[in-house]
Amino acid sequence: MPIITFTSDFGDRDWFVAAVKGQILKVNPKATVIDVTHNIVPHDVRSAAFVVHSTHADFPPATVHLVVVDPGVGSTRKPIIVQSENYLFVGPDNGVFSYVLTDTSRVFAINITGEVSATFHARDIFAPTAGILSRGDEPPTLGTLISDYIRFSFPDVTTRGKAVHGEIIYIDHFGNLITNIPTATAIASVRIAKQHIAVKECYAEGRHGELIVVKGSTGFYEIAANMASAKSVLHASTGMHIVAAVA
């Protein structure tokens, strides 16, 4: 059963998601299209990159991951296919695949044929490409191998003495603040916005509304508020600096 996942910032108000799925099914009626999310903050490429990083390996090998957060649509930015050891990724060359690219990945610039809308490459380029790949076609038949693609680094964590400096890299639907500090690092607390927050085992260990730090399912520490939104409590945003105390 061919699987295509679909991640975008299209939301659920308009017809964009349906149009993309329709084009996929025209190319491969046997494909199963699974929505990861369409509620990425509009134009937030780095948040989309983190979502792709966090979810792609939950799917069987040979899954095609279609990702469209594309503020540069219609410009000279390239449409690309990323071929990794187990997965294929389709989307714009704007860094959205930065966190899944490895030294063995191969990247192809998609050959564009036919009439293409300058505002809807998801429908006219990426959807048909994902559908064709899901049938088993190889990337070299659809594009040209390139080496000049965009890749940004995962935000660095720095250690100074017993302090680990990091930042907020993603905010989820519940208002939990996902940091770039790996859970393999033993920490006792986090300081953010002049607040010191203790590490707990789970959300329920905090009092109602209390800020806590827990080991998140993505492999990074996250700041949460039990039965509340840490984002709202701290007026937080991605990129905010945090300092963790080593345990």
From TrEMBL:
Q: Does the keyword S-adenosyl-L-methionine apply?
A: yes
InterPro entries the UniProt entry points to: SAM_HAT_C (IPR046470), SAM_HAT_N (IPR046469), SAM_OH_AdoTrfase (IPR002747), SAM_OH_AdoTrfase_C_sf (IPR023227), SAM_OH_AdoTrfase_N_sf (IPR023228)
Gene3D superfamilies membership: Bacterial fluorinating enzyme like (2.40.30.90), S-adenosyl-l-methionine hydroxide adenosyltransferase, N-terminal (3.40.50.10790)
Superkingdom assignment: Bacteria
Q: Which UniProt keywords apply?
A: S-adenosyl-L-methionine
Listed Pfam families: SAM_HAT_C, SAM_HAT_N
Q: What is this protein called?
A: S-adenosyl-l-methionine hydroxide adenosyltransferase
Could you tell me which species this protein originates from?
candidate division WOR_3 bacterium SM23_60
